[in-house]
Amino acid sequence: MFLLSVWRLTRTAPRALTFEQPLRDPIHPSYLQKQEERGELLQPLIFVLLVFCSVLLYFKVSLMDPGFVKSEEEVKAGKSEEQSMVIPQVPSNIKMRRCGYCMVKQPMRAKHCQLCQHCVRRYDHHCPWIENCVGEKNHPLFIVYLSVQLVVLLWGGHVAWSGLYFEQSWGWLQHNILLLMSFLVIVIFTIVVLLLLISHLYLISCNTTTWEFMSHHRISYLRHSELENPFDQGVILNLWRFFCSCHLTAWETIYFHRNNEPV
């Protein structure tokens, strides 16, 4: 939504800012506006569709269940054949700890979020931008959302840059200040999203989460593990499990398979 507004500003800023002096300063349209004026609508249409797709992904990631851990009563009340197939069964010889806040049995790698008031499976972090936790169920879609957002920001920055023409005069700055500010905002957002995407892809390739990476020394199952990262199964298998697995994972099975001592 923000990017769509920036694109409109990119197209209309030169015209709006030169309204009072139409004869003195020529309009310098962006390359998308030039294509639109020539009737070449493919790239402008793709850009608008990408912006629309990023907005849809934003609402999807914001509103979907990130992997809330259900209480035993909720599981029994709403248990179905489909749910029993999706939710992994922890081996009976493994004791699960109870959350001190909501008193549900926490599977390994779950954490209670104070803002959501729920325990979240494979908790990564609570994202203030989407106002939701990023967990096992919505983390892959969150990465897709960041990727689409990055493409739109890079394209939007290119569009804004193509609408700029530089002159060393105060009048030029007055007529292009809105476009310059739009370009600066796009650059800042692009850097933030790029760094966020790179950091998440690195952690995913190691099969670790932001919470585990930042709080390794405070997490009991990581402190008592013989391995630095007991969930790392190699880059290819880590990426495959993250992006291509259709079911939730029983991390206890992987953990105890790679460790000889209990948590």
Tell me the β content: under 5%
Q: Cα distance, first to last residue?
A: 47 Å
- Spans of at least 5 consecutive residues whose pLDDT stays below 50 are 1-27
Structural Rg: 24 Å
Shape call:
elongated
- Biggest sheet layout: 2 strands, antiparallel
By DSSP, the count of extended strands is 4
Structural class: mainly alpha
Portion of residues within helices: 40-55%
What's the arrangement of strands in the largest beta sheet? 1-2
Mean pLDDT: 80
Number of helices: 11
Provide the succession of SSEs. Answer: HHHHHEEEEHHHHHH
Which labels suit this protein?
two-stranded antiparallel ribbon; 4 strands; mainly alpha; disordered N terminus; 263 residues
Brief rundown of the structure:
This protein is mainly α and 263 residues long.
Polypeptide structure, described:
The structure is a single chain. The protein contains eleven helices and four strands; from the N terminus they run H-H-H-H-H-E-E-E-E-H-H-H-H-H-H. Helices cover 55% and strands 5% of the residues. Helix 1 runs antiparallel to helix 7. The protein has a two-stranded antiparallel ribbon with strand order 1-2. It has a two-stranded antiparallel sheet with strand order 3-4. It has 263 residues and is mainly alpha-helical. Residues 1-27 have low confidence and may be disordered.
